[in-house]
Specification:
2 domains, rod-shaped, alpha+beta, 8-stranded antiparallel sheet, Immunoglobulin-like
Length: 239
């Protein structure tokens, strides 16, 4: 798995793991990598140590000596300071900080792209058939929230034991469970005395793949079993 992963992606996972900024799926992925590649644990430990040195350096209390002794010691020590080691630590801290900054920017960019790549709203205009010539309806669907608003006008009120059913009709090859008419029962509803109704309803996930929906339709069905889909269309629409 490691051989197929880019170095950049691995470094982002390490930085996110050290910062505790991975989601559960990323944590699981990284822990699998740790089990398969123990060497990665050394990189994690090095980054943790680097961050500790960069943001929380150890405090060293000066010895209780006379001023002159302290000054003399300071002069001698100044000549023997391990500058190479200090520079290496500083460079590692800068690299770690840049890696973490790159990680944060990348996550922010991905989140921004996800927010802007929202699916467009789907609108269906339904017209009455010969069984309800004066009727009309509109069905507005938000694929992002999987909610739709159905607004119906001038449908004849039904007798007791009957309901109207809204159907989502799909292409024959659509990979969803449908009835013998390639339809999904979306909602059963009734209208008021004037034949009107407005209702917000959940919709099937197929609306996130709008090109699989060929039309929506309304039929009259038995209230006890509207899923049988035995009635003829009183409203129908094309996308």
């Amino acid at each position: 798995m490691l051989s197929s992963m880019s170095s950049e992606h691995l470094q982002l996972l390490i930085a996110g793991y050290v910062l505790g900024d991975l989601d559960p799926a990323e944590v699981a992925e990284f822990e699998r990598l740790l089990e398969q590649n123990p060497a990665i644990a050394q990189e994690v430990e090095q980054m943790q140590e680097t961050l500790t040195l960069a943001y929380d350096p150890p405090e060293v209390a000066p010895p209780a000596r006379l001023r002159s002794a302290i000054l003399n010691t300071t002069v001698r020590t100044r000549r023997s300071i391990p500058w190479n080691r200090i520079l290496n630590v500083a460079a590692a801290a800068i690299i770690a900080a840049l890696g973490i900054q790159n990680y944060a920017l990348r996550r922010s960019l991905l989140q921004s792209q996800a927010e802007t790549q929202r699916l467009a709203e789907l609108n269906f205009a339904l017209q009455g058939t010969a069984r309800a010539k004066e009727a009309s309806a509109k069905f507005e669907v938000d694929p992002n929230t999987l909610e739709g608003v159905l607004t119906v006008q001038n449908l004849p009120p039904l007798p007791p034991g009957k309901v109207y059913a809204l159907w989502t009709v799909l292409k024959p090859e659509a990979p969803f469970t449908v009835d013998r008419q390639n339809a999904i029962l979306t909602v059963a509803f009734t209208v008021d005395a004037q034949g009107n109704a407005t209702q917000t309803i959940p919709v099937p996930k197929v609306y996130r793949t709008g090109n699989l929906v060929t039309r929506v339709a309304v039929t009259s069905e038995d209230a006890a079993a509207p899923q049988r889909h035995q009635g003829k269309a009183v409203l129908t629409s094309q996308l």
